[in-house]
Task: inverse folding
């Protein structure tokens, strides 16, 4: 049986998909727009636009006035995916070939660019006295994502990274876009600064939790549910919460082993399993889980200054869903 | 001796460079911003921002209110160069290594993205009641550039292209950004619709002439001045005004030869010279020159409805400079 929460999310997703469909429909040349339609057709979780609409409703806004903004953040998110997949050499996304794999790198570069421009164009169609401020928030958020991606790539070539630099990176790469989505939703629904700040912080904390959990799922998820190999972050020398946390607490042979993992390219399955075993043994997996729980609890608390409403409850419930996701 | 025109252009260029310098200064991480600073440091002709400021002044605007917009169009132009150089596999730009050559493709993708976002961010700092309209014009222009680039890449894989499709392509790839720059300059200086339309059309015609002349310079310029090999468009199977015009008028052995040129990869120097010789013989080079002159004359005429002023004269003079450029 569908709960009210499920119905709400489904209704939002449908409206978002419809708006995006309109934006991309019948545009030419196909060599530019077909890859965009392909990238968006995969659907995905639509977390950012859904949060934007929930935040908007929670502060008293109307969905119809926030729908362009919701479509815009989803377009931006897909722009980052299309370009990141080139940079990370990822061939699969949502169970299908990535754009650069299905066509080629040039097509992926150009259609990613187009998605970013369409995102701005769509956001600019929003009717609000706040448009300049909304646009500022939007650009700042996207720039942070670029900075976060640059740091992430930098980290791949470094032997080790202090955990606070890791947090700076994920705040830019992951949390910024989620936080920005929530903030824009609020900006389009209220003038109340406290509500706007609360919702922005909620997004920030949720975004951090989301990334740490992504790191966690890479080593503990069921491969069939995850849709990719367990331990792929380890194989790509990604600096994740787990490896950095473990490294911080390890000594002797364990430390040496973790350093090896971080510098070696394409480590064996056996070493991946050994690393995961070590994470469990050292309490790193528990530390990550508790960190996720902690961020989500804090996120929930930030909502308390906003008047109670179904939408506020849905924002809370969203945190629970996130905590229990397995892909 | 410097003319008033030269002084004006120098003063504009200085202000544009200074504003861009401010925008890019001290930003981190360096792995993202250093390539952007590198791309912009080469300077270039700054045609688009200079035209924006001239158009603005010609319709009665004030430079200080248009400077962010001028910087924004130059940032966008450089975004297109950084990404196009990846797609076209070009290793040299303005006598220096391109970003993807100096660093790598990933760096070029990401710093190009960053330039586009900074362009929007900078334009959004403009103080004007027209901001939403300016933003709409901006997005439309950039989207056309993406579409034009997509068509240009499509054309490379086609045996032949009708000349009207060529014009559609260059209107998007080259004229759109120049026309948009002029229009935004006007939007920031006047409410007069006729002036705005005139200046937009001026940019459109100038942009077309600019591209046809680019095609022309590829075969008639002095290599040392041009900074690249003569005939490089021919070697990349680019569909230029010259080859399409020649093909349209050729028959028999000439037609067969031109078809060969269009389908062969990396043709020999001898064939390049043979093609250029054929262009001259068939009157294609004269046709291109006369087309450029015609577009520029028309561009000059469109300015006639704008009240006479030094700035309007400079816009006219700009056309002469363009007609006589040799690189």
Result:
């Amino acid at each position: 049986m569908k709960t009210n929460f499920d119905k709400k999310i489904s209704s939002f997703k449908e409206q978002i998909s419809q708006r995006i469909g309109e934006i991309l429909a019948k545009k030419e040349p196909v060599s530019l727009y077909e890859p965009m339609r392909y990238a968006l057709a995969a659907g995905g979780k639509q977390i950012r636009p859904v949060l934007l609409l929930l935040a908007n409703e929670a502060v008293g806004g109307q969905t119809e006035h926030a729908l362009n903004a919701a479509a815009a953040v989803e377009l931006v998110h897909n722009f980052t995916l299309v370009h990141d997949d080139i940079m990370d050499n990822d061939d699969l996304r949502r169970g299908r070939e990535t754009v650069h794999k299905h066509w080629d790198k040039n097509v992926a570069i150009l259609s990613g660019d187009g998605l970013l421009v369409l995102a701005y164009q769509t956001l600019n169609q929003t009717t609000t006295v706040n448009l300049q401020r909304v646009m500022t928030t939007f650009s700042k958020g996207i720039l942070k994502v670029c900075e976060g991606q640059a740091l992430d790539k930098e980290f791949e070539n470094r032997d080790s990274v202090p955990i606070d630099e890791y947090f700076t990176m994920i705040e830019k790469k992951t949390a910024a876009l989620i936080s920005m989505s929530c903030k824009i939703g609020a900006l389009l629904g209220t003038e109340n600064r406290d509500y706007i700040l609360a919702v922005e912080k909620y997004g920030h904390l949720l975004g951090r939790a989301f990334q740490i959990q992504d790191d966690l799922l890479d080593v503990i998820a069921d491969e069939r549910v995850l849709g990719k190999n367990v331990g792929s972050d380890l194989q790509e020398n990604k600096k994740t919460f787990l490896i950095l946390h473990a490294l911080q607490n390890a000594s002797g042979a364990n430390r040496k082993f973790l350093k090896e993992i971080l510098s070696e390219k394409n480590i064996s399955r056996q070493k991946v399993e050994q690393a995961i075993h070590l994470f469990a043994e050292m309490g790193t997996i528990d530390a990550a889980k508790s960190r996720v729980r902690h961020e989500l609890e804090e996120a929930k608390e930030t909502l308390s200054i906003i008047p109670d409403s179904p939408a506020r409850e849905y924002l809370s419930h969203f945190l629970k869903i996130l905590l229990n996701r397995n892909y």
Summary: The radius of gyration of chain A is 20 Å. DSSP finds 16 helices and two strands in chain A.
